[in-house]
Amino acid sequence: MIKIICVCGARPNFMKIAPIVRAFETSGRFETLLVHTGQHYDQKMSELFFDELGIPKPDVNLGVGSGSHAVQTAEIMKRFEPVVLEFKPDYVLVVGDVNSTIACGLVAVKLGVKLIHVEAGLRSFDRTMPEEINRVLTDSISDLLFVTEQSGMDNLKNEGVNSDRVHFVGNVMIDTLMANREKASRSTILSDLDLQPREYAVITLHRPSNVDDADIFGRIVAAFEVIEKEMKLVFPIHPRTRNNMQKTDLGRRVEAMQNLILLDPVGYLDFLCLMSNAGLVMTDSGGIQEETTILGVPCMTLRENTERPVTITEGTNRLVPITSEDILQNYRQIKAGKHSAKAKVPKYWDGKAAERIAGIIAGHCGL
Ligand code: UD1
Ligand code: UDP
After folding, report:
1. Is residue 242 packed enough to be buried (19+ CB in 10 Å), middle (13-18) or exposed (0-12)?
2. pTM score, two decimals?
3. pLDDT of residue 338
């Protein structure tokens, strides 16, 4: 048996870890310990996804909660080390690019345990993004790197990573989307919110670069104030964003919009249903750029760069600079039907990425 610790901690990790844990279980060759760092802890940012996606209850919850980058990262490391020492795994597997990813990765390699990174190689080339630092560092200490798109393969090659360690396997987040699409189609959220397919836009925002600065966040809100006159907006709001909004006049402005439906974060099935039927998604999320590509829904990514370029070259995504004018101009183009809904499925985004990962790890262990 291969002893492996699987780590998750923040919302996007749960969609990624779900098919991996399932594939390990199905394979019969793994003894898995599931560790939740507790980076996200609200019921609607964490527990809800375990219930909906059928992820087993974590064997260990480190309960770290929020803090500055240094405090959060250090606290995860302190609490994760004794877990690794006790379980004595052959591998630690981390996903994505959040603080839990690098914190647990560092603990593993310092204890001489092999590290696996799922979603390796993505680069925005923007070192002001905390996630970019987490991605670069995690890849540099990983023994096995599983990649979602060709750009990731190219980036790792350019960085001199030994190709024996790198495997192009596809996208575990899309495994989850495919496994849940039908279930999501039975969600009642559209009728609950009185929404008609394609006649509304979905919004998510949580990048510090967009929502921590009231001036920048204000430019985005100003664009929404225009758009909501023409199209309903549905905005399940991230706790970081709600906290920031409430510190300024922006909270009042968002709540004053008649056609904007402000919600707490919603569960995966409701969110997938909302996205699938939307006319447009406006977001700064990483994962949502990929999901809208598969769903064929136009996506305006309110960022200067993306670490997921295949969503632009093959998908429905476009980058939109953060000015009210740019947001409005792109919205109008999409509304007029001028968007690139090429609906091409990127290579290996076929629902089988986790299965491939389990097979490759087992192969490395000679099983
Ligand atoms: C984190 C990740 C980001 C990822 C995002 C997904 C890092 C550096 N950032 O950003 O890459 O895209 O998760 O959602 O790892 N909070 C709550 N309840 C919660 C969780 C957070 O109220 O359950 C509030 C707290 O005030 C906290 C703030 O949100 O300080 C930010 O949380 P944090 O985990 O530090 O970063 P995110 O912005 O969520
Ligand atoms: N998501 C969700 N409910 C919401 C908003 C997002 O289930 O209210 C899902 C979304 O479908 C995707 C994941 O959360 O699977 C993306 O997480 P997030 O945007 O927080 O993180 P990122 O991908 O930017 O790291």
Report:
1. middle
2. 0.98
3. 73
Of the candidates 91, 96, 86, 99, which has an alpha carbon nearest to the alpha carbon of residue 122? 96
Residue of minimum CA distance from atom 14 in ligand 1:
11
The amino acid at residue 343 is: A
> pLDDT at position 262, please?
98
Mean of pLDDT over the chain: 97
Residue-wise pLDDT tens digits, 87-123: 999 999 999 999 999 999 999 999 999 999 999 999 9
Backbone angles phi, psi at 32, to 5 degrees: -105, 135
Ligand 1: centre distance to CA 240 (Å):
6
* CA 44 / ligand 1 centre spacing (Å): 12
At 238, the pLDDT band (50, 70, 90 cuts) reads very high
What's the pLDDT band for 341 if we cut at 50, 70, 90?
Answer: low
Looking at the CA of 10, name the nearest ligand: 1
Q: What is the C-alpha to C-alpha distance for residues 200 and 202, in angstroms, rounded to an integer?
A: 7
- Token digits for 360? 């490759």
Q: How confident is the model at residue 340 (pLDDT cuts 50, 70, 90)?
A: low
Query: At 106, phi and psi to the nearest 5?
Result: -65, -45
Walk me through the domains of the chain, giving residue ranges and CATH numbers.
2-171+349-364 (3.40.50.2000), 185-335 (3.40.50.2000)
Interval between CA 27 and ligand 1 midpoint (Å): 33
Ligand having the closest approach to the CA of 98: 1
- Cα–Cα distance measured from residue 103 to residue 111, given in angstroms and rounded to the nearest whole number: 13
Share of the chain above pLDDT 90, in %: 98
